[in-house]
Amino acid sequence: MSATATGLIVFACVFGGALLGIALRRMLPEQHLSTESKDVVKLGMGLLATMAALVLSLLIASAKSAYDAERSEVTQLAANVVLLDRVLAHYGPESKECRDLLRRYVASVLDQMWPQGGIGAAAFDLTTTGGDDLYEKIQALSPQNEAQRLLRTDARQITVDLGRTRSLLLAQSGSTIPGPFLGILTFWVTVIFVSFGLFAPRNATVVATLLICALSVSGAVYLILELDQPFRGFIQVSSAPLRTALAHLGQ
What we know:
By secondary structure, this protein is mainly alpha-helical.
């Protein structure tokens, strides 16, 4: 389910809970709305609000960590691409085929991770063999002196690092937000909003305030899910490092 759809569901649950509380106020007997009853409900909602705040902060921290990790890996991938190209350039003209293959490999990775210019979801292909082909081409080079042997060794190691980083990006492409966490958080916040509506006076100011608060909560959930999916949606990891690296390949 997309982040937008989940955010709308959370909004419907939370604001619907507030409206339910307002409707229940008219149905409950007066003794259920006494000062003593209000105090008990406020204590219980205070406990729920504390737990909800802790879970919300945990989800935000988890999503932000996942986003930062993948952004760092993209930057590392771009740096290794440029470094590999320079190593192959120093090897000599014999490495031209390897450098051309590197360029095609980077272009393929860009098309997979940021399809259609960054619109839509990334499509990681497990069957892509560009990295394997590049490693085999580098392995097939025939060094003529000690300097070329060292450069070929460096190139092989950087190619292995490229493959490792891409595998990490693939492994981390799924969601890291546990569904039960999100479900429990939505339930707690809905119950809190029911209590808001239960004891709030019925007027436009109260309804508008509850609406804004519900939008804020659903917006926070939307932000969490967007950060948790860094290669799709509106909050994406930038492709600029890899595109810059691609522009400098072969120079």
